[in-house]
Amino acid sequence: MTPEELLAMPETDYMNPAQLNFFRQLLMRMRDEMLHNVTTTSEHLRESEEMPDPADRATQEEEHSLELRTRDRERKLLHKIEGALQRIEQGEYGYCEETGEPIGLKRLLARPTATLTLEAQERHEQRERQFGH
Fold first, then answer.
1. pTM of the entire structure?
2. 95 φ, ψ (degrees, to nearest 5)
3. What pLDDT is recorded for position 52?
């Protein structure tokens, strides 16, 4: 199924087995890609050689730092992906954790790990800005 076919389905079919399978496959591909990146990063960091020139060494250290920060962000996203896959299995995927309303296919296509409707997310972010939580 393509995203276009998914969006063409009637609203009454929201989170039917075909849609759940589409998102399950999408999330599993994302997870597999990230796990591959982790392996590649580990190999890359092990293979790096000691640079005699301080400038080259600094550049290499900065590249490693950037790569590790990227992997850390991916690790956090991997946790969200696992949560989304679990919600699919529990029959809760696609519905807002706060309101119980459908999150919407367009939002889930843009952010498959979304747990809140756009409106609930905006309220959440506003509270964070207001109260620093």
1. 0.76
2. -120, 140
3. 75
